[in-house]
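Take a minute with the sequence and fold tokens given here and flag any structure token that looks odd. Thanks in advance.
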Amino acid sequence: MKQDKKDYILEVAERVFGELGYEGASTRHLATEAGVNMAMLNYYFGSKDGLLKAVLERRINFLRQALLAIKEKPISSWEKLMQAVDIYLERVLVNSGFHRLIQRELSLNQRPEIIQTITDQVLQNINALKAIIQEGIDNDSFRAVDVEMLIASILGTKYYISNSSHISSQLLQVDLNGPDLTEKLKPRIKHFLQDFLQAYLLKK
């Protein structure tokens, strides 16, 4: 099987899992949507759990590679952090179905192996973000702050908005189920995080 075909199956599976959840996405439906037979699906991924695991690893790894690339750029620590926040918001807001899938798996806690995969992969991404912040502290660009709580605050802002959409829609006066999510909300979240990070991280 060519790699591009395998990637296509993973892209389709990500969409289907995001729309229907794990329980709602049968292997037959996944195979039909991807235009392959079930034998091929099982041969390359082993099971529906194996396919979900591959989907999770692929998407989360995309973000990690982007964060690692930012870390190596010859720019200031502040510019690196702003680029990291921007790419994080872009990936999370555009792929909201994927992130709902992650949250659903974590909250249901029914598949330990999948939970461990999510945990291991996301922690690697967090460590990549942590390295950018720590670099700024080490080179004296940033104040010596509680890095872990700072990361929890950055991630928590988006997760609260997306996981409490009914409340957040009223609070922020935007339609979180419509185009406002990316067209209006992303610049607002980015501006808030920039102000927040400036106040907390940068030296007076």
Remarks:
- Residues 53-201 form a domain with the Tetracycline Repressor; domain 2 fold (CATH 1.10.357.10).
